[in-house]
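**User:** Once you have settled down, spend some time on the protein underneath, comparing sequence with structure tokens, and judge whether sequence predicts the tokens.
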Amino acid sequence: MTRLERNPPATGCRNAPILKERGQHEVFCGLTGIIWLHRKMQDAFFLVVGSRTCAHLLQSAAGVMIFAEPRFGTAILEETDLAGLADAQEELEREVDRLLARRSDIRQLFLVGSCPSEVIKLDLARAAERLSARHAPHVRVLNYSGSGIETTFTEGEDACLASMVPALPETAERQLLLVGALPDVVEDQALDLLQKLGIENVAVLPARRADKGLAIGPNTVFALTQPFLGGTHAALERRGARHVPAPFPFGEEGTTAWLAAVAREFGVDRARFDAVTSAPRARARRAIRKAAEALHGKSVFFFPDSQLEIPLARFLTRECGMEAIEIGAPYIHKGLVGPDLDLLAPGPTLAEGQDVERQLDRCRAESPDLTVCGLGLANPLEAEGLATKWAIELVFTPVHFYEQAGDLAGLFSRPLRRRTALHLGTGS
């Protein structure tokens, strides 16, 4: 049997002009990533060093867990800390010692910087180094920034994973590393597909537990499952690992292309690839076709928010029959989203960064059928008569790989179906 062949290159948007905007932007901060990361890493704890506002954000976004202690918290910076009247380093280390004495289940502790801790120049890297030495080998203490200053909310996960890479042990084994936090059920589906393809030595970053024996080296190849992991990508390459570029596994086409890139890397032949993927591909196509009936022929406008915008635009235009008017993304990293840009038909405006007032003007002028944006913009746009989709929901919901392809299409069709039902109900 011949090896899986590479598809011929498509004429897409990789070299299309990009409108670069550097004005006011509307996004959540990187602390938001803790909400899904603390669920993924079962023996980790995220200690935000910040203000009461930071604590309120996490509590309101994640909800209150009644039956189990959460794996995140906030070390509150009081007025004396902010004014330099107290030694915030000493107070932080004292609080960490108390936390670890009470919670013996913690194996990884992340000190998460915030806007207040960065403004007063609190050296969390030095604190993490001292605390890690003090509590080794039972607990590894790392730090990263979740500050919302000039960042978008998915960068919290990127900064977290990037902080883990330098501390991973070295390995010479040939292995595949899946990078990006996925819901457990989706991760299990991906691992099952790879195992059926004959790719056995597969690790995941982040691992569910610190004792998984995760290691990295020059024979590690990695495939990203999230398009916002530019810092993690760079950190892995500095350790000698090699990236497998591919479209992201959204929808049937994206999942197949992602798996095909990995399969080529590991010498999987075409017959085996087709035998493993044909049934789930067919299920995904049927599910998308049913869910996307309301999307065909409709227009979509993306505000920059999650960094998922380019792969999602590729999915909506190629698999759901939509027309993309503008695709805004906080950052456009062609080393990551280049394969999706290759598949995206020329035509839409590509915008990097944001000047929110100007983009609102363009959106209103185009009057798209569906607008994908953040929570802060959705309600005002709905009041103006535009149907919207909350971008943040696409990060919290299982949407990757074959079995979730129909659900992904449904997330976009639901606002249009709801609007149609409301209009019919009012007789308008």
Observations:
- The mean pLDDT is 89.
- Residues 30-151 form a domain with the Rossmann fold fold (CATH 3.40.50.1980).
- The longest strand covers residues 44-50.
